[in-house]
Amino acid sequence: MHQENNKILSVVIPVFNEVNFLNTLFDQIEIYFNKENIEIIVVDDGSTDGSSNLLNELKKKNHYKFLFKLIKLDINSGKGKAVQTGIKNSQGEYILLQDADLELDIKDAKEMFDMIIKNKDIKCIFGSRYLSGKLKKNNYFFNNLVGKINSLIFNIFFSQSLSDVHCGLKILHRSVIEKIKLSVNDFGIEIDLASQIVRNNFFIYEFGVSYFFRSKAQGKKITWIDGLKSFYYLIKVRFFDNSASTNISILYSIIYMGYVGSYFGMGIGNTLFIIFFAILGSILGIHFKILSSTLIFLLIYIGSLFGKGNGTTVSVALFFVLGIFIAIKSKKYFLNTSFKNYF
């Protein structure tokens, strides 16, 4: 007999060797999320430090009002895999992603939950460590720098304005979860998740959260290697995980923008301009399909017919800007028509 689901919230917590934080974590969970219509899903990602035994002990406590689900992965498979496993075993109308290491405050997670259930138009909220005046402790310059650079690149690639794409505290409505298919098993899950949310036309709201950075001695697991891998994931989700029409548009735009670059500079400078404009073309190809890109290229070609020398360069640049303007207008005009896939 089908039993109607009565869980409003599923809190998914990946755990790998966090024995020193689990007691405090569950003390805080009990304060803010101890209700019958909430489930706490802990995914033990192959811990070897005693976390598994402690989680079993915590689960045996019978005074929790929330439903405690404990899932054990035999080997360490990565944060992304743990998050995917937790989501697959969730039932809540909303899914909250929370790290176990206490870098992010459970109180902030509760504030985000209260906010999203009061506004049905909001389907997705990301925590941000760079917004608001909440308490922060962060003394790792490189990690902070990479996080901000990655957020900037993500914003350029996806026309967003997120301040912290890597923050592990997020809450999503079930309708968002049903539209995405996560596949990244490591820390790249944050980029994979954000990119798929944007691709499916959900708006990402941000909420400033507290942040208490912990050192490697305290168990910090993300490294500079993960920082470098994040650049790979940014390239992958933007330039390879696309529809065939988008990939064709990217290639098409690279070619004609390389042509535009040929009008600038001389010698090695000309080569550098061609490379720069080809990269710019790859970004344009993401946002404009074949017909809108053709409009840009047509205006560029018309511009190349005017003037001589530097005059031609100026003319090409002006007509390029005009082409972008017309392409944007055309894209908006055809957005809700059967021609939208061509603009």
Could you give the topology of this structure?
Layout: E1 9-15, H1 22-33, E2 38-45, H2 51-60, E3 67-73, H3 79-88, E4 94-97, H4 106-118, E5 124-128, E6 136-137, H5 141-158, E7 170-173, H6 174-177, H7 189-199, E8 205-208, E9 211-212, H8 224-239, H9 244-261, H10 268-287, H11 290-304, H12 310-333
What attributes characterize this protein structure?
7-stranded mixed beta sheet; alpha/beta; Spore Coat Polysaccharide Biosynthesis Protein SpsA, Chain A; 13% strand; 2 domains; 343 residues; elongated; two-stranded parallel sheet
Model description:
- The structure is a single chain.
- A seven-stranded mixed β-sheet has the order 3-2-1-4-7-5-8, sandwiched between helices. It has a two-stranded parallel ribbon with strand order 6-9.
- Helix 7 (189-199) packs parallel to helix 8 and helix 9 packs parallel to helix 11.
- The protein is elongated.
- It has helices spanning 22-33, 51-60, 79-88, 106-118, 141-158, 174-177, 189-199, 224-239, 244-261, 268-287, 290-304, 310-333; strands at 9-15, 38-45, 67-73, 94-97, 124-128, 136-137, 170-173, 205-208, 211-212.
- It has two domains: 9-239, Spore Coat Polysaccharide Biosynthesis Protein SpsA, Chain A (Alpha-Beta Complex); 244-342.
- The chain is built from twelve helices and nine strands.
- It is 50% helix and 13% strand.
- By secondary structure, it is an alpha/beta fold.
